[in-house]
Amino acid sequence: MRQKTPFVEINTGALGHGLSVGVGLALSAKMSGRGFHVYVLLGDGELQEGSNWEAAMSASQFRLGNLVAIIDRNTLQLADRTETIMALEPLVEKLESFGFQIARANGNDPADIVRVIESFDMAGEKPHAVVARTVKGKGVSFIEDQPSWHHKIPVGDQLRQAIEELE
What we know:
alpha/beta
């Protein structure tokens, strides 16, 4: 992914390594005085991996105010709802207890996510998290909010219908 998408240093996935790598990059920026910010996009199902919580503790311990975790809170994961498989709520309170500055956003509205990030005190010492509520497959009637579409790809008539519904 790094070679294909500018500013993307690493892509990880469901194993939960993204926040740990992001903490390392943010700590490097802080220690070297380079001052850049690190943004990590996480799925809510991914938060069930323990390494995320270890990374969250480290982010607070090292006062990484240059770190922003954006959590796609669609309440779905591979086979079912996150709350059925492994409950995350109260998510905001958990993140606050780890020392994060938290804000909520409409994750289906990129402008709202940008607005929320711009409201953060990026000069401070608290790491930041955006809990971005989304609807998986929003706008496509047969995909929207359906766990069964986690790994499917629309083809043929499904693809045509999806494109029509999104236009």
